[in-house]
Amino acid sequence: MGFGFAMAWAALAGACGGGSLAEGQPASTDELASSLYESLPPLVTVDVGTLRDVIEAEKTKGSCDRHFSRLDPATGKFDPSRVADPAQAQRDLILCGKFLFFNLPVASDVAVPENLLNALQDVFPQVTGRAMTKLGLRENPDEPGMPLEMPRIPGSKSGPVALLTGKVRTLTCVACHVGTLPDGRYSVGMPNDQLDLGTFSLLSQYPLWLAGTRRDRSDSTKWTEQSQQFFNELHDASKGVFNPSRTLLDLADTLGFLGHGRVIYDISGQDPVPLTDQRTFFKAKRGRLNPSSPMLSEPKVEIYASTPPIFQMAHREGSPLGEPYLGRVTSSRSLEEFIRQAYVYTTLKTEYSTPKWVDPIAAYLRTLEIPKGAAVFAPGATPDAPAVQSAGNAIFKRDCASCHDGLRGATSASHPLDAAGTPKNFDQLFIDYAPPTRQSVTALAALMKVGMLPLVRTGIKSRRFDLIGARTRLGYNGAIEGLDHLLCLEGRTRTNLDRSDPLADSVHAELCTAYAEPDRRALRAFLRQF
């Protein structure tokens, strides 16, 4: 979800009239509000290190309370008259954003009941691992046995339902946007290439399958053959496993046997996802996401995307430094608009798409920097010689820069899909869209309410190359497994050049056939510098 843009302290001083705000000198209300939101100090330079380092790099406790106290209660917007110390106000703004990024303490209609999460981990440890670590999540050092990426959040259920489901949890930004460097350190802003969102999504659908009658469970119009096989294997594996945390699984199974499975649908507030989404769950694998499920399920098109890096992205409405759009399914004109949409995806509500909740995250994301001196090579590997890097730079300028002319290898404008050889997943997406599930209906209505642009892709824009040498999933669909695969080096080849396949590895396949090996090695050396 995050997109960052690091601003130097000198820029802050310039915006504040030579540092007058930092020194406590008088300034207009407009100047103060502008400086706090648009010029950020180098408070959070690089969030990188061990998991404990990343969590505690900056103390966030109380930062949101202090920041919220500076907002106008009527509008939720920042009120400069409530600021006594501008530097501390900036610090709290950014650290509140980090707290929201990691914890997302807002009510959600797509949260996971804690009892269900416990049941899945206790009954199927061979699939989930402790704290869902086999699915690419990380155990929370402050909450042993639970994923860092799934904190408790305020629940929207009450009464008997709350007693049955327990507390609720949801995936936060951290699930996709905190990755692991080759040297083992964690980096905020790097994609989590180990995330197996497909299997996680399948597990979340298991209680809905259990709630069906025997006929429903084998109905090919509701569940794909692969889904039926996967769920039947889970069902067989759970026989003889008894523990208190599996309450929801037992209830769903019993209600399905009695023909009252709709109760589970009502408790969860969700319908089973379309067959197309189920197919993507099996194909997604690690590092490949199905970004439309389950909130904007598209029953006609298989959609896959990999997570981009999110460092230093200056995305402001009307700015030439911004991106043509953020996200790969919906469009946005600014980072703030994108975050408003992201709140809808994570909550199915519009109440959090306001400056109170949006501005802190935007401020934090704009401070994220690319790790300096990060180990982009495998441990013990020999760095490339400067002459090889220089040769790669020359090839890039000659053959690649006409398209990759934006910030750090991105493009400054959208290009036709055919020009990049990318599968046409995002072409004319969601035209005449008819939401197939309750959650899709809610999501679409909420997204339109917060000012979403039309859901139609007219082209693509290449992503930045940030940390490209350390990443294991490249391309929009995540089908390119690192630089060696992109350039067909070290024995790697392209195996699926069918552009009609959404998981084809055909993007820039000409690199492997039109360039001699020395040139490909030179290009790799150049790209590793990003």
Q: Rough shape?
A: globular
The number of helical runs is: 23
Helix percentage: 25-40%
Number of strands: 6
**Uncertain stretches of 5 or more adjacent residues:** 1-30
The average pLDDT value, as a whole number, equals: 82
Lateral strand order in the biggest sheet:
1-6-5
Which class do the helix and strand fractions yield? mainly alpha
The fraction of residues in strands falls at under 5%
How would you describe this protein?
- A hairpin with a 5-residue loop joins strand 5 and strand 6.
- The protein folds into 3 domains: 151 residues, no CATH class; 147 residues, no CATH class; 142 residues, no CATH class.
- Helices cover 39% and strands 3% of the residues.
- It is mainly alpha-helical and 530 residues long.
- A 3-stranded antiparallel β-sheet has the order 1-6-5.
Write the layout of secondary structure elements.
Elements lengths: L8 H7 L13 H10 L9 E2 L1 H6 L6 H6 L17 H18 L8 E2 H10 L1 H4 L23 E2 L6 H6 L2 E2 L4 H4 E3 L5 E3 L8 H14 L3 H4 L7 H13 L9 H12 L3 H7 L6 H10 L50 H13 L7 H11 L20 H14 L17 H4 L17 H12 L33 H4 L23 H5 L2 H11 L3
Antiparallel strand pairs: 1-6, 2-4, 3-4, 5-6
